[in-house]
Amino acid sequence: MNNLRRLDLNLLVTLDVLLAEHNVTRAAERLNFSQPSVSVHLAKLRDIFDDPLLIPGPRGMRPTARAEELREPLRLALEALEQAVAPASPFDPGAAQNVWRIAASDYGESAIVLPALAGLRSAAPSTRIAVVEMQPSRIARQAEQGDIDLALHTVDGSPSNLRRRVLFTERYVLAGRAGHPHLRRRPTLEQFCALDQVIVSPDGGGFHGATDDALATHGLQRRVVLSVPHFLFLRSVLESTDLVAMLPERLVQGVALQVVEAPLEIPGYEMAMLWHERAHRDPAHQWLREQIVNAI
Question: Transcription regulation: present as a keyword of the record (predicted)?
């Protein structure tokens, strides 16, 4: 360890060239150093390794047994360093075999992952995508440890120490089954409050949401009779019952539901893509992010 503290990269590079050339003058030419500079480096190396390393011979300098022991591991170490500091290679999606892990709720799966999936599969057919359960309290740690590459989350409540890119702003609409007798037109506030409604409660069991906050400013309450944890189940409930729900607009596009404007404005939210600084400049990760942005 003490020897490592005394070494610097220039000394190791000089030793590598000296072991290849067996001549101080030729080594100086290859390194673009002066001959005295190379001699100074050699003197420092001899002191560090407590070995002459190169001794005079009939045709230049001859490596000692210690120098011969150093030759191969030194070359491998320098090659590894060269590879480590080389510019990142351009990402080739056609040849890539990455496994990307994306944390998302069922809303994020439907509104973001699904629209991007066909393009990702077409451009990078040998890659794989793992969509993992969204656990908001663990996003930052998962991203830092490399357990996830991306998280799809609302801007509100997202960890401040992660990079983000806003993908879109979502709004709410009122939805029910096709042909629902009370959704032939936009209901009044009183009619809306009288409807039996279902709500998505990601934390489980809640009967209060942004719609209820908006109604409270008018001194009104609605009838929430069912609370479910996932949007996918909620859509099935709407299709098979007379219950109605306030749903993110992107979830009802292309779905056989009756959709009308709500009788009051409900604050929407911004959806963002989150990632850790450790992956920010990685060419593969940059490509993945751009694919998602372009698909939304």
Answer: yes
Question: What stretches in the chain show pLDDT beneath 50?
Answer: 1
Q: Look up residue 228 and give its amino acid.
A: V
Pair of tokens at residue 185: 């037109």
Neighbours of 269 (CB within 10 A): 16
CATH number of 99-167+271-295: 3.40.190.10
Sign of CA dihedral 274, 280, 283, 286: positive
- DSSP per residue, 192-260: HHHSEEEEE-TTSS----HHHHHHHTTT---EEEEEES-HHHHHHHHHHSS-BEEEEGGGSTTSSEEEE
Q: State the angle between helix axes of 9-21 and 65-85 in degrees (0 to 180), rounded to the nearest 10.
A: 120
Which of the four CATH numbers 3.30.1130.10, 3.30.360.10, 3.40.190.10, 3.40.50.300 does domain 172-267 have? 3.40.190.10
